[in-house]
Amino acid sequence: MFKNYLRNLRGFVLSILLSVPFLSIGGPGYFNISDYGAKADGTTLNTTSIQSAIDACAKSGGGTVFFPAGKYLSGTIFLKSNITLHLDAGAVLTGSKNLEDYPVTISKIRSYTDNYTNKSLIYGEDLDHISITGTGTIDGNGASFDADGELRKKDLFESYKARPYLIRIINCKNILVRDVTILNSPMWVQHYLSCDGINIDGIRVSSRVNHNNDGIDIDGCNNVRISNCEIISGDDAIVLKSCLDRPCRNITVTNCVISSNCSAFKLGTETNGGYQNITFSNSVIYDTQLAGITLQMVDGGKLERVSISNITMDNVGTAIFIRLGNRARPFKEYMAKPPMGLLSDVIINNVQAANVGNTGCSITGLPNFPVKNITLANIRFTFKGGGTPDLAKREIPEVPEKYPEYNMFGKLPAYGFYCRHAENLTFDDVEMDFTLPDARPAIVCDDVNGLQLLKIKATMAGPEPLIRCKDVKNMFVQSCIAPPGLETFLQIDGAGSGHITLLGNDLSGAKNAVKKDGTQEVYLDSNRLK
Question: Does domain 25-235 have CATH number 2.160.20.10?
């Protein structure tokens, strides 16, 4: 009797499951590209078949355009509202190697990226509720497009346009990209311009077959979540841009694993609209040739309220690069140059980095235009070292219009942090070490008003002071430790220096607690001295 009961129960459950509409693969709202003539042979050009499935789906009110397992060659396909492209396991959407299969598409919204592209494999504009999902793959055949040919010598921008993007989404709302693998882009991998409500979750990007292979470009977008992604990119991996007069606002990036031939997480280079309310957290950066974290403002705009936390790095050109410059490039040719920008209110917390290059980290503004309210807390960096005594004496040029990059000044006078033109700058619980002996100070500050150095611990080699400050005022130093055998803990230079307080530090390892080049006001209290 009990066996009959179980048999009847299983039959009842099975009948219920089979009656559920969404389990019927051929049901309403479901459009298999094979039914529209797509061939999964990797050689047939399927652009028309795929577009027919998309158009039919849109005409029916929306649904899923399904790519079954197989390799589908295509040129540009145009998304429609309320549509999901779903690539099943084993499905590969492959970009054509023929540039003629990517028609020129000029977006309605004008931005500086007009100079970079007018072609893409997947394109959407002025849409709502669009998705690209599944465990399949999008492969751009990027190595087939020449980035260094005669066209580049004649016209750089036209050479960019001869290489399509893989995904370009403009002025759209409610966008989901989930689980797909995206490979081998000819140019930028994916570009989201002036969009609202983006969720990029669990994707894998691997693209190092051509130049300008940015992993993810978020450009003048609001309300963006990027999570659980692996990015291996030939150019900047996750980069926020503002190539028009609209800010990137309310952006969170978390739980990502990143490797880049350029910078891993970057705000800039284009900054016209600025950045507000940005977080980057719980991520790993490795094997990155330039900076792990780059924050820069060079084309006007405001960078405000950026929080970065719980990041580990290994083998990076530098760990942190923060720059307020004045390239002042307008995003349209006929526009006037933008006014000087603002970079303020940045917190970087709980960051560890090993094998950091020997250029050093930098935090710099310009004369009369300081970076403001920058806090670095709970930092542990080990640098490769090897800096020579002559580097410690280098004078660093301002170069306000120079393209911003971590190595723009050359090797810095500090092996750890070089800071210039800053206001309200705090280092709290920061440890710095090196693998090879380095003769430079750990920290060099120039023209800083409101400097707090709390719980600083750093290795030193050679006669240079651990910390050297010039024209620094309203400085507070507490709970720092001077390493044994140090010649000088703090060197104060410049007539603009003053109102400096050292409280509760262990400076017994240093021969000299403080050296001055003049009559700067320094207050020492409750310090342990040699």
Answer: yes
